[in-house]
Amino acid sequence: MTCGLIRSLGLCNSPASQTGKSALLDIVDFCLGRDEVTLPVGPITATVSWYAVIFQLADTRALVARPAPRGAARSVTNGMLEIGADLEAPELADLRINADSTQIRQQLGRRIGIGDPLAQAAPGSLASPLSANLGHAALLCLQNQDEVASKRGLFHRQNDDAAIRNALKATLPYFLGAVPEDQAARQQELLQARRALRRAQGELKSAQDLNRDVESRLRSLLEEARVHGLIEGDEDLHNNRAAITASLRRATSFQTVRVTDDEAQRGRELALGEQASGMRRQLRVIAEERKLLTDLQAEEGGYASAVGRGMSRLSALNLVPDGFPGEQACPVCGSVLDEPDPTVADMHATLDDLSRQLDAVQTARPHRERAMRELELRAAEIRQQLRGVEGALSVIAEERSRHAGLLAHAETQAYTRGRIDAYLTQIDAVGSGGDLHRLEADVAIAQRVVAGLEAQLDADDAEDRLTHSLSYISGEVTRHARQLRLEHGDRLVRLDVKKLTVVADSAQGPTELMRIGSGKNWVGYHIAAHLGLHQYLVANQRPVPRFLMLDQPTQPYYPSDMAKRSGRLEDLALDEDREAVKRLFELMYQVTASLSPNFQMIVSNHADLPDPWFQACVRYNWRDGEALIPQHWIDQQQAGA
Description:
Strand order of the largest sheet: 1-3-4-5-6
Shape: elongated
Strand content: 5-15%
Largest sheet: 5 strands, antiparallel
Helix content: 40-55%
Number of helices: 19
Radius of gyration: 44 Å
Structural class: alpha/beta
């Protein structure tokens, strides 16, 4: 897709300001589907009612015309789109509305190969998934005069807002071919699958938590119901879940209940307090018994270790032959000992005794471990019962501290019935365990779905493809930077798609564009980066328009009005500036010639080089009053006003 009918490098020279050369880029941007009108207020907006561009496609042409905004409006959402091989500029009377800006972007995008890829929204964002379209591709093809010499941004409109920057970061991997068209759609499916997995895991955890503490919670609610007079009688249900549940269901009925007097409530509190104290005493006894078993285990461990060492020493007796006569005489000198050594038989007897003692210790160990487990289970059961009793005591304490008249007794009963009913509903929803199996199955299925999508979305493979693309582009950008003799250009220069800038390796380390001095370097790196990018896009037939439009890239070299009016290199003050300007256009010419007829550059600027190849590229030379808007249009408008 090229702009207009110009192939290769096209130049529009104008030595004066306010001739409309900068408006060319805004018109192309507008006709590529942008809604906001950025054309300068003046002769253009006063005399033009329609803006149009003819795009040359691979096998046909596309005419896009957009009406000028009416009144004080700053945006337009409709336009005209025509497709045909023999399209020419239409007459004003033939212009009509037949599409909106979204349709224009979609139709032109599909013509150059943009499908309907969806880029995943940023984590935590509430925005809809981003759909890559022609508007995003156009950001790679345009450079306003305040952008081509900017150190803080590399792409068109990058510094407008965060949405544009996020769109560039999200769609660049697609335009570079690092991810296929449906990759982003699968990313969205994976995002939804992960959300479903987290939801299923949350439901399973809630059900597991509910089943784990259900007995203590039921007993606490039972005691609360008794305190508020919803249940009559003080029978002990002995942690019978079915009986407790049945009593609570009776408590939720709306029958008239007897108001519990203060004396009965106080007696109930004393009974619960004694019950809680008894449970705490039982826990202390269990703790002491457990400590005793632990101490015995430690002592037995030390004793077994000592016995083991003794047996290890006596095990050497197995090497002594039977009938060894060494107990009465010294084995070295043969003299008779005053105190004979223990006989081999005695030491064997000692070894057997130690072995029996060690066996006794090992025999007792399983019994002790079983006793420890029984104590732990008993302690857990008592703690669960204690939580229920303490919950009931807490309710009684809250009831006593509540100010008189704050809540009527009937309202208190209704509130308690509501809490009991809500909890019983939760229990009914979870069931006795069968529903847990269903939730576990749901989690397993969700995990398999996520794993399958993750296998399809090979992040490492996409990263490898992106690295390959950037390596190719970085090689071209480095070569261009060396040809332009840019600062730090003698080292590796690369495109950073995460920060949307150029990074050059310097002696001090990686240096981003904003830390490289002078506007001349900024212009040079912009041109080098965009040429390298489009070389890759053309070589790999990526779905991006095959043109690059620059507005006044030589502005840092023409600071004086005299130099701008002439546009000649001879009027530049410094020899190095003259050489630098020539190198810029030579590079543009070489790249467009190498990519022709599949690439086009459109440059509006002040420079007017005498070289034949340069003059052959000049399409418009607005001088001596000639401009984008003819003077007679302005005269007619002023006369009509």
